[in-house]
Design goal:
This protein has 20 helices and no strands. It is mainly alpha-helical.
Amino acid sequence: MPKRTFVYGAMILLAANLFNRILGFLYQYLIMTYLGGEVYGLFNMVFPLYMMALVLTTAGIPLAVSKLVSEEISLGRPRQAEAIFRIAVTLLASLGAFVSIVLYFFSPFFTERLFPDIRVLKIFQICAPAIFIVSFASAFRGYFQGLQNMLPTALSQIAEQIVRITVGFSAALYFFPRGTEWAAAGLAIGMLAGEAVGLLSIGSQFFLIRKSFSFPAIRSESVSLRPLLLKLWRLATPVTAGRLLASGLSALDALIIPQRLRAAGYTVQEAATLYGQLGGTGFTLLSFPSVFTFSLATSLLPSISEAAAHKQMNQVRVRSTEALRLTVLLGLPCLIIIFYFSYPLAAFFKSANIAPVLRILALGGLFTYLQQTTNGILQGLGKMHLPVIHSLIAACIRLPLLVYLTGRPAYGLTGCALAYVAGFISVASLNLLALSRLTGLPLNFRDFVLQPGVAGLVMLLIFKLLTPLLPDQPFVFPVTMAAGLAGYILTLAGNGGLSRKDLCRIPWLGKFISR
């Protein structure tokens, strides 16, 4: 199998995630324009509990598979890697089927007791079978990621997104005349169809190209299932705890925010609409740069695991520093765009009233991107428990603020955004301190603050100068954004923040630059 760097893998996933995120932007625009915030709000109420059930089902196994497969292959034990994958497939398929069946038949019980709006019953029932599908597919993704081959994951994600949008929006429009809950159920049908196609895609790729990523077996190598199960359990348990915590907090947010908005004086429908706008517009825009940080974190885990398995701590530091620098360089311009153009961007999603909320979220956005990257590094080092502990500490800060500020009429969603920013800063800071302690990670002020900061100021200055000169028309915003990005990149190239070496690492483009 050809050697792949973590940057190469990150770029493969970045291309797929960027394409999917653009499609997702289109999807959100269609939903908010033709269906409204209430439809998305109903669908979004179910999603956190669905994710919690999914975390219980997968139990952190895909990440553990990725780490263990990478380690076993790097140590020349391919049969061990194959055995890990077989165990994971069996466990995930069995757990997924069990949880899906239980949730489907007990959905009326959960709906009446856990959700602030009983209209979500149909949505919950449609989402239940998707848990089995996603669990099954995650075993294949963990295996391929452990081999540092991100292409099958990328292709399956693209197929999944295309089907999700096509089927989801068509079904939602078809059912919309029957009521908002029926339209939201249509979105759930799209999600179920997309997950099914994603499984078919990555499963077929596994059987078609498996030989290309298999290493010759060593006859003397013996495989013992019990130690492998113990390894999976040891690595998966803290990841499960962390994801359960994150999903549980999201589910709690889905209960707290609408209720506190009602306490602030909003009706049930207004609270559902505002909550839908927060997720459908606010977090959709804020999460756009995470197409890179998620890709980077996914690629980092096997890469860091491989270096740590060979006790190459200097390599761990080099890869970690590079990943964090790239996170800052790519995240900062996106946040400047979101902050400066918050009103036209929110208006594009038919949610102009939450533009001030979007600006506040943008101020803490860089910390949430750093959180993703540092989580990937810590997990690659085998410190799966640290992100869990740090998230729990941050939750103790965020939740009281969320309850208090969101329920006050003077704050509402603005207070909600302030609480989220406090949480973002807390987790990222704790992760960075842990990395510095564990690896002696050098965080150079010039590389991480000065160079990107100067480029960001140039970008902001270009926006300030161009905005009064150009007509206030929708087609002008992309032109202004492109000019600002060009200024950002040229400034980075001039002050040394972006080098020829960085460009040469980009797949396909790099081979032309290096000539």
